[in-house]
Automatic annotation (TrEMBL), chain B:
Disordered as annotated region, ranges: 1-85
Record-linked InterPro entries: DUF742
Residue stretches in coiled coil: none
Biased composition (Pro residues): 29-55
Protein name: DUF742 domain-containing protein
Organism: Streptomyces mexicanus
Length: 174, 187
């Protein structure tokens, strides 16, 4: 899974490593199911559409990795719940200029127990804050990797994914 | 998410209706009023290999009644998405979004199938995930899940559900993680 705030570069990241142009799938949902409305008010529920971009990487003849960018609006938790099952882990992309945007994603993965790494996406090639500063600001424990990346570049995105899978593997073996 | 195709028959379908406390229902699709637009079918020819489907009520494959359907109706955005599914909003199987689908149908078996079913089979001559079917055919994910489940029930597609360690909440096992890691490094 690739998560993070709106406009942080999730689809760019997916597109950088995917072997296909990122595709978009849509789910129809009701606002009631988004945890906004009380379910007793089903009479006036409205439908909306939530879109999700994803890419794929064929790793072997019989092994395909799918990268799902989580819906930008963090309130569509039901889509996240759908994705978490079977997921290896999550990359939480962070724009350090808008650090608070990643809070919901970090909270979500901390609660769900899915291994995650935090990747600081350097806009304009700038990394104004060091991983240590971000770790301090986000109150992230020492076990969770925090790395810098550039979502536009395949090598960076690939290296981020490798960090994530290594982290997931360590978490399983621990 | 990693989905190894050709897994050893991982039909790990959970019960569809039973969502426990109901509060964590991840498939809360809107429920249009249920209608039965299809004539009930008698027991038709069904030499289909039924997958083991625990606690799933078998439903006869539904066929379109001979109502006049304008050409290209399936692409018409004016048709409400769940009209394709006969008003059903839940699939019979709990299909993972990354579950892989591969058609096993011969062209003659596709005759008389719904156009959407035919399009899915056509697409899945090369292996595709449920997510890709939804995206490439521009049908909502929930609808794609239902249609793919129909095809699986009719024996027209094979589904490879992702593996995963049931003891770890369906998370991939260590062997799979190692394969993914090695695959990524070789990219």
């Amino acid at each position: 899974m690739v998560a993070g705030g709106f406009g942080v570069g999730k689809t760019t990241f997916v597109g950088a490593v995917s072997e296909i142009n990122p595709l978009r799938t849509e789910a129809v949902m009701t606002s009631a199911s988004a945890g906004i409305d009380d379910l007793t008010h089903t009479g006036d529920k409205t439908t909306t559409t939530v879109a999700m971009d994803f890419g794929r990487i064929t790793l072997d003849q019989d092994l395909i990795l799918y990268l799902f960018g989580t819906p930008g609006q963090d309130r569509f938790w039901f889509m996240w719940d759908d994705l978490v099952r079977g997921a290896i882990g999550a990359v939480v992309l962070v724009d350090t200029r808008r650090l608070a945007d990643c809070f919901p994603a970090v909270d979500y993965f901390e609660n769900s127990g899915l291994p995650f790494v935090i990747a600081l996406n350097g806009f304009d090639g700038q990394q104004p804050y060091s991983p240590d500063e971000v770790r301090e600001a986000l109150q992230i424990g020492p076990d969770t990797p925090i790395i810098t990346t550039d979502a536009r570049h395949r090598a960076d995105a690939k290296s981020t994914l490798i960090t994530l899978v290594e982290h997931a593997l360590m978490a399983r073996l621990r | 998410m990693a989905t190894p195709p050709g897994g050893s028959g991982n039909w790990s379908y959970g019960p569809v209706q039973d969502h426990g406390d109901g509060s964590a229902n991840p498939y809360a699709y809107p429920s249009p009023p249920y209608r039965q637009p299809y004539a009930p079918q008698g027991p038709g020819p069904s030499p289909y290999d039924q997958p083991p489907a625990p606690r799933i009520q078998p439903v006869q494959p539904q066929r379109r009644t001979p109502e006049p359907a304008p050409a290209g109706a399936s692409n018409n955005p004016l048709v409400r998405p769940y009209a394709m599914t006969g008003g059903r909003t839940r699939p019979r199987y709990q299909l993972a979004i990354e579950a892989l689908v591969h058609t096993t149908a011969q062209p003659h078996q596709m005759q008389g199938q719904l156009p959407e079913h035919q399009r899915i089979c056509h697409l899945c001559r090369e292996i595709k995930s449920v997510a890709e079917i939804s995206a490439l055919l521009t049908i909502p994910l929930g609808v794609a899940r239902i249609l793919v489940a129909d095809l699986a029930e009719a024996g027209l597609v094979a589904i490879h559900q992702p593996g995963g360690d049931e003891n770890a909440g369906g998370q991939p096992d260590v062997t799979l993680l190692e394969r993914v890691l090695s695959g990524l490094r070789k990219l």
